[in-house]
Amino acid sequence: MIKIRKKLLHIAIDGPVAAGKSIGASRLAKRLGILYVYTGAMYRAVAYLGLRNGLDLEKEAPLVKLLKKSKIELKKPSQKDRVCDVFLDGHDITRKLFSPRIHWGSSQVGVFSEVRKELVKIQKNISKNHSVVMEGRDITTVVLPQADLKIYMTASLKVRAKRRLKDLKNSGVKTSLADLMKKIEKRDKQDSKRKASPLKIAANAWILDTSKLTILEEVEAIVKKLLKMGLVE
């Protein structure tokens, strides 16, 4: 049984797509008995919100106006195949957020500074009263810059593409490894070069390469790091 040695423990994880952040962070949170915050789901929800209302995801102002009138919530998973439940204005939209269109749409809306500001407010408020494992692309640098442990999680491009390919096949989506590698490489450039909160390695972040790690090994590596830092016992 792991015991947290402080009132609030904040673990922040950043990294590129398919680095193992979501499933690893959710398993880690469960192991520690604390809240998991999947910020990527929030951006997917914004993309879904825009597309559902017929908006052009390349235009920021109408999207932000609609977002300010809406309510996005993350809740504990109600089903075993989920890492969390995502609600939009009181309705569970979780299963609608994992199509390729929503996936790439989340990257489109993520470049907008006003969209990010609105979602960062929600994320910061959650962390005020909860111990959290929070993951995304600007958590260590913008949302939780004072986190107890900051992790930059990564993996090789080919490994990440293979992981994404497996996920898409399980969802019934047909594509090729070569095509996914191109799309992920494009997404990486978009995330790292955007003006609003670009993806980057925080100065004091611990870099964890998951290319050769299973999810269990990934979680164990982080737990060992927490033990070494004296944050848990």
TrEMBL record:
<dbReference type="GO" id="GO:0036431">
    <property type="term" value="F:dCMP kinase activity"/>
</dbReference>
<dbReference type="GO" id="GO:0036430">
    <property type="term" value="F:CMP kinase activity"/>
</dbReference>
<dbReference type="InterPro" id="IPR011994">
    <property type="entry name" value="Cytidylate_kinase_dom"/>
</dbReference>
<dbReference type="GO" id="GO:0005524">
    <property type="term" value="F:ATP binding"/>
</dbReference>
<protein>
    <recommendedName>
        <fullName>Cytidylate kinase</fullName>
        <ecNumber>2.7.4.25</ecNumber>
    </recommendedName>
</protein>
<keyword id="KW-0418">Kinase</keyword>
<comment type="similarity">
    <text>Belongs to the cytidylate kinase family. Type 1 subfamily.</text>
</comment>
<dbReference type="InterPro" id="IPR003136">
    <property type="entry name" value="Cytidylate_kin"/>
</dbReference>
<feature type="domain" description="Cytidylate kinase">
    <location>
        <begin position="11"/>
        <end position="225"/>
    </location>
</feature>
<keyword id="KW-0067">ATP-binding</keyword>
<dbReference type="InterPro" id="IPR027417">
    <property type="entry name" value="P-loop_NTPase"/>
</dbReference>
<keyword id="KW-0808">Transferase</keyword>
<keyword id="KW-0547">Nucleotide-binding</keyword>
<dbReference type="GO" id="GO:0006220">
    <property type="term" value="P:pyrimidine nucleotide metabolic process"/>
</dbReference>
<dbReference type="GO" id="GO:0005737">
    <property type="term" value="C:cytoplasm"/>
</dbReference>
<keyword id="KW-0963">Cytoplasm</keyword>
<dbReference type="Pfam" id="PF02224">
    <property type="entry name" value="Cytidylate_kin"/>
</dbReference>
